């Protein structure tokens, strides 16, 4: 459970389960940093990187989070809970992302202009912007959980929290939509068993 160099990505995925009981453990900042560094290597639409992470690790902030997370004890007992937020205005990142691409000589300014106009056009649709925020921040969330597992931590993702109260208590700007909370820490008890539907029930080839 502790290290990782010998473990394959597939083994890490298979070993990851949602742990809800944690021992008190001060996660070294270096581990948190490495987990987050791995998290942000996630792919994203147009490379707009539609994510922000709010790290909640002080006792006082954890206590504020507890009732908002419907008293799920893991937000207090784990080392840290990371709120993953999706960016509803990720189109504003286009200038920076594609400016850099042009600077490196991988794209002409004319192509950049066309592309960024397309992106801004797509973002006039609020539903699209929201779908993109949720989809891309969710990809980062999965990376976070696997990176944590690889470093010897367990996690539990949580959609069960009061999003309105969370936004208010933690001053989340309107631009960001709360996607999920992820508690990260050292397991005190194993995850309870969960089933997966068999592959042949969930995979269809070529067409429905
Ligand atoms: C988006 C999402 C929201 C979830 N919300 C909660 C939650 O609020 N509380 C909780 O205890 N588990 C939550 N879970 C964990 C699921 O119950 C768990 O992933 C599922 O039962 C499969 O079990 P496993 O993760 O142990 O393999 C959530 C999982 C996901 C992906």
TrEMBL record:
Keywords: Oxidoreductase
Listed SUPFAM superfamilies: FMN-dependent nitroreductase-like
Family matches, as Pfam families: Nitroreductase
Positions of the Nitroreductase domain: 14-186
Database matches in CDD domains: MhqN-like
InterPro entries listed in its UniProt record: Nitroreductase, Nitroreductase-like
UniProt family annotation: Belongs to the nitroreductase family.
Protein name (Swiss-Prot/TrEMBL): Nitroreductase family protein
């Amino acid at each position: 459970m502790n290290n990782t160099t010998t473990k394959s990505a597939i083994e890490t995925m298979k070993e990851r389960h949602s742990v809800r009981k944690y021992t008190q453990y001060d996660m070294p900042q270096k581990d948190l940093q490495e987990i987050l560094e791995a998290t942000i290597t996630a792919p994203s639409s147009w490379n707009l990187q539609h994510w922000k992470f709010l790290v909640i690790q002080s006792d006082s902030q954890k206590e504020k989070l507890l009732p908002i997370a419907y008293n799920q004890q893991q937000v207090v007992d784990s080392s840290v809970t990371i709120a993953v937020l999706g960016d509803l205005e990720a189109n504003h990142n286009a200038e920076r992302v594609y400016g850099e691409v042009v600077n490196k000589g991988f794209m002409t300014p004319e192509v950049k202009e066309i592309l960024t106009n397309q992106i801004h056009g797509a973002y006039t649709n609020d539903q699209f912007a929201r779908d993109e925020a949720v989809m891309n921040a969710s990809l980062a969330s999965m990376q976070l959980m696997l990176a944590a597992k690889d470093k010897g931590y367990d996690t539990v993702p949580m959609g069960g929290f009061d999003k309105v109260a969370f936004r208010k208590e933690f001053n989340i700007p309107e631009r960001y939509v709360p996607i999920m909370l992820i508690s990260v820490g050292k397991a005190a008890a194993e995850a309870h068993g969960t089933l997966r539907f068999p592959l042949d029930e969930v995979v269809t080839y070529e067409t429905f």
